[in-house]
Write a structure and sequence with these properties.
6 helices; Nucleoside Triphosphate Pyrophosphohydrolase; 24% helix
Amino acid sequence: MERLEKNLTSQEPCPTDKNGLTEEQYLKQYDASIYDKPGVAVDNLLFAIDEMPNDNIRKLPEKRLQVLLVKRTEHPFLGAWGLPGTFLRIDETFEDASMRCLKLKSNINDMHLEQLYSFGGVRRDPRYRIISVSYMGLINKNQCDCGAISKNAAWFTIKDDKAQGCSTLAFDHAKIIEYGLQRIRNKIEYTDIAFSLLPKQFTLAELQQVYEVILNKKFSKANFQRKIKGKVECLNEHQKGGFRPALLYACAKNPNRVRTSL
């Protein structure tokens, strides 16, 4: 008992600052209004692969990379297309704000999502200083029915690193799209990010199409199979329908223990 009392009485006093305030006292009298407060927004860059109609059963439908855009219904940039975004609420994380926005505008709950970059240009928004934390998502387009959620949302094909049919995008969203394309092209080389754009079961030809669309280059069949060796596993099942049903594959659960090698 004597030892406990000695320890209690020998505790060091709380440190004080130059004004003689402890941290508790400092926080009680702290005035946050002395600093300017920029707005914080979250913008979502959502990519998907679209298949172009094809009546020739001997050929795979051509694929194209698309981005989800929303037509603005208020100033600024009234009538312009931009990325789906929202302002950050005071009680939520960036991830929560991103998912709240995507669920509201595209009815998506389960997808690959990662923080892309922060955009803080002083004049990126004409209203006042707004910093945007951008997120990039990849989705199998068949899982997304944005038309049922918002009549102002639409998919736009990416061509020459730009959304085709949009001469001007709201804010700095064209820059965000370009940055996202660089990210996905880099990551597709060393991660399994491409599989987020496909159904769980796919053919090697379909996977090759996704790589070619994203990287904007063609691969020979042999070179491509060497490129993805260890990333996929054969399901020993064939695609239904088609001229020559091909074997189905899936993303390898354990890249070091692939059941069937290429």
